[in-house]
Amino acid sequence: MFTGLIESVGVVKNISSSRIEIETKLDNIVKGESIAVNGVCLTVISVCGYGFVADYSPNTCRITALQKLKKNSRVNLERALRFSSRLGGHIVSGHVDGIAKVKEIEKLKQFYRIMFSCNENITKYCVDKGSVAIDGISLTLSSVSALEFEVFVIPETFDSTTMRFKRLGDEVNIETDVFAKYIEKFTNKKTSGVKFEMLKKNGFA
Known about the structure:
Elements: E1 8-15, E2 19-23, E3 34-37, E4 40-47, E5 51-55, H1 58-63, E6 74-79, E7 98-107, E8 112-117, H2 120-123, E9 131-134, E10 137-144, E11 148-153, H3 155-160, E12 171-176, H4 178-186, H5 196-201
Antiparallel strand pairs: 1-2, 1-6, 2-5, 3-4, 3-6, 4-5, 7-8, 7-12, 8-11, 9-10, 9-12, 10-11
């Protein structure tokens, strides 16, 4: 599990269709631990002087934007959450739901307004003021429509993550709020007797 609070921005040293090598300033990385790379949970298979190496499956390559990375691409990094850690963002599993594209970037006085386009398989789990992980960054949705959503990003988050390098048309990994998926599952009449009204009455929705 992760929080969506980015610890560091790393640099891709080498990448293939199944393996990625990342240079990072994160210390005490150990073989076998989980690290979210642009929101994708990967397992460290080896540690080297400059960083770490991880493998990923063909399915991960297919459904995420890792396939768009190149040598010297910058990536957001977050180590797995410890039970003793504060949950400052929201619960992020590192299991990406799909890809969205940067549609608009607008610099405001105190924020950056960014609009993303995507398909309904993503937006159906998005709600106004709900949580979303964009390339592993925990953000709050400010508006949602059928095929796009909007977020406002504070300068600190913008400047300390890969968000500052994004351009129109760039693809990003999206993980929607896990609770939305559970609610859909539990309120599906074909699979459960749990109803939305009951969840709402008991404070779960």
